[in-house]
Design a protein that fits this description.
This protein has 192 residues and is an alpha+beta fold. It contains 6 helices and 7 strands, in the order αβααββββββααα. The strands form 2 sheets. It has a 4-stranded antiparallel beta sheet with strand order 1-2-3-4, covered by helices on one side.
Length: 192
């Protein structure tokens, strides 16, 4: 009987289960800056006159080819570009952390990022980060007043620096922009 009582005590007194230890990964901000959410260049009346003239000529050709949806698409894209070029972007916070890049409210962990490079676009320094996901394929972040060397030093701790060669489409659009500028010549000289 005493043996049965001891067996009951042993079964009721089980050893405490070990608690699962979850490592604490604290987010540490390595660099933070505030800049516009996109690159912005206001356009003048000459630019819009030229764009609408070209769109009208292309639309006439497409009208005779009975491509009505393509005409509508062209004018929808022009309207979108007009809205984006007349509304200045708001400033947002960019952060480089030990876990990834924070762009406003969006978080991009390091395991989804491929490589980075710093370029100049429309007179502004820009941090370009290519991703491994399909959308967005590239994060384009204006640096504003942030030091380019400091950004590069921190980014190289996590990602390789690689500036890709321009592809055929980029070369073609650069050639078209230089050969047939849509902006007035005064603005092009200021930008260069």
């Amino acid at each position: 009987m005493t043996l049965m009582a001891q067996n009951k005590k042993e079964t009721t007194q089980s050893p405490p289960s070990p608690q699962e230890v979850i490592p604490s990964y604290r987010v540490k901000t390595l660099l933070s800056w505030e800049a516009p959410e996109r690159i912005f260049k206001p356009r003048n009346k000459d630019f819009w006159t030229t764009v609408l003239s070209i769109a009208l000529l292309v639309s006439i050709i497409l009208f005779f080819a009975k491509e009505y949806f393509l005409i509508a698409t062209i004018f929808a894209l022009i309207f979108l570009y007009y809205i984006l070029s007349t509304q200045p972007p708001k400033n947002i916070n960019y952060k480089i952390t030990n876990q990834g890049i924070v762009w406003g409210e969006q978080k991009h962990p390091w395991n989804t990022l491929n490589y980075f490079f710093i370029d100049q676009e429309r007179g502004q320094k820009v941090l370009n980060v290519n991703t491994l996901i399909n959308f967005p394929k590239r994060l384009i972040m204006p640096l504003g007043s942030q030091d380019e060397k400091e950004v590069r030093k921190i980014m190289e701790e996590f990602l390789p620096y690689h500036k890709p060669d321009p592809n055929l489409i980029e070369k073609g659009t650069d050639w078209l922009a230089k050969t047939f500028p849509l902006d007035s010549s005064e603005e092009n000289k200021k930008e260069r």
